[in-house]
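Hi team, as promised in this morning's meeting, here are the two structures we talked about. I've kept the exact order from the run log so nobody has to guess. The first one is mostly here for context; it's the second one we should focus on when we meet again. Sequence first, then the predicted structure tokens.
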Amino acid sequence: MSLMQDYSVLLGQIAEQHENWSVKTESPFTISRHAQEHTLPLSISVYGSDAKAHLFFNIYDDGPFTGLAKKVLHAQQKEKIQKEDEDSGLVIIIDTDGFAVVFDATDVKTTDFAAQFNQIIETADKLLMQLVASAHDTVKDMPDEPAASPSTAQAPQIAQGNASSVDEVVQQYLKEKDYKYNHDEKNKRFIFGFSTENYVNRNADQSLQIVIDYSDDDLLRFETPWLYKFDFKQTEYSLIASVMAWFQFEFKFLSMSLDPSDGELKISIDIPLGKGTIHTTQVHRMVAFILQFSESTYKELFSILLTDSKAAEKQLKKLIDDHKATIENRTWLKSLESKLSSLTDEQKQAIEAILEQGEHTSDQNGI
């Protein structure tokens, strides 16, 4: 698995082991802690790739804290504030979503993070509380900020009552990121792309194309047309279907489709709209996930699936076996912890004596 997936699994385990934490979203993988006395409403989200992982500790409340962050940005005439805290090494971020601190886990083993979890949470809580207190001092004499026009960069959310409002949000996101794009107004969609490190498209180019379709008033669709083109004479349809089933099991919000007439495989993610709201950060999260998914799964499996069915089948089996082993190990550890807790001191001492004897034997008769 990639480092991002390793940390996603770890956060899931932490949520299972701590009563005050629960899984909030699958993409990005996020666990959250409800606000209690003397604690903030905190969430932890993981972003990254095969070799990188960053954990975002966010005050996820969409009310007072979000409004306070916007006032700070308005006072300093900035769209985003980002700086490193020298004492903790965490990166502070204030944007229109609120307050956050970021922990760079790229060079930290998941086992080390798990052992330091409570200490890291304590540090993040302390730093975020200091941020909030400082923000209150900064804006205490400021009048309430007037409502901004939906077309301005300061607009935190835009109502989704019609297609044009969603159009504005997506276009705002693309302009903020300075992406080159094509706005197909007739079909109500945006088309843009990225250069990639691992993924190679059907034209043998390291480039990924993404389409954001807002033609349906009830949802916003992110898709990758012609993500892959399969030759069924070279790769069996049933094997491709098995790979699709595996990834849809692993990422339950993800849809994958395979056209049997021409071998086109594409992925899509739908965000329900209804009477809710949409923000550029939501668009960014979906786009970032699609890019990360395409990069990591091409390297992990699809590059093999396109050229060598037998090797791909073997690799798929390994991925499934690794997943089963992770689940079994998690269950075994819980069972072991339960059994160990019930041992008497005499039984524990006897086990330690056996282990010590085994160590001495290994030293004498080593391989």
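And here is the second protein, the one for discussion:
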Amino acid sequence: MKNWTAADIPQRNSGFAIITGSTEGIGYEDALALSFSGWSVIVMGRNAEKGAEAIAGIKQTNPKAKVSFEKIDLANLSSIKALASKMISNGQAIDLLINNAGVMTPPKRLETADGFELQFGTNHIGHFALTAQLLPLLRKSPDARVVTVSSIANRDGVINFDDLQSKSSYAPGKAYSQAKLANLMFALELQRQSDKHGWGILSIAAHPGVSRTNLLITGAGRWSAAGMARTFLPFLFQPSSQGALPTLYAATSPEAKGGQYYGPDKMSETRGFPAIAKIPRQAEDINVSLKLWEISQTLANVKF
């Protein structure tokens, strides 16, 4: 996979992909790259105006792009259920689901519509619920993949079952690390569950390293230390198109393996080209992963 780029994505004119959080940043770059390789792509986000802008941007760059927009709020289980029900009614097999959307380090503790801490509820529970409800359509595809986007912040993460929603103590970075660790553990456990139950799905995790997106600004705020670094020191961050490569590799490469984790290959996985990423020790605890899986099914009110 040395120096793998979007030019290495195999052509696939019949592929159908869904990407959360794809009106900008990494998700947008995923959608654009897949469109050039012949995929039909649904761009997903909370804001219909941003969705229209994203579709227009993709079609301006690639006039042949087969892209459309669907509105979803991953911080609202009712919104997720409505979107999934619409997709189920449509009946089209899903070949690729990229769980990309994310919220990062809001300075004050916020909650989702269902009362979850915003980062845990959006980044983990929202994607957990969406994947569970789209499982019948993923199983209709002969070679479906689910790619869940984590972060190098997961290295500091701990799943605190005594305070999953950070009610007793909220620290923005700590809550984010927990949520991104949960993303990785979900991806790994989903592969084990697929193997156990014969779902025929490849579940793969990826992370973008340190990339130039608006996630820091919209989360921590423009005038936070991280937000100012993103604004005034852009050279510290690789372009979002580069940060998208590990996700795209996981999503499309014939060499990508289920239950694996991919990220950039240089400078402690902060930048570079796709390579196998190091799974933090705490993500390898199968007992914790299974407990998180069971609790997440209860919280999301879904069953795989």
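Starting points for discussion:
The longest strand covers residues 40-45.
The beta strands are 16-19, 40-45, 66-71, 96-99, 145-149, 202-206, 211-212, 238-239, 261-266, 271-276.
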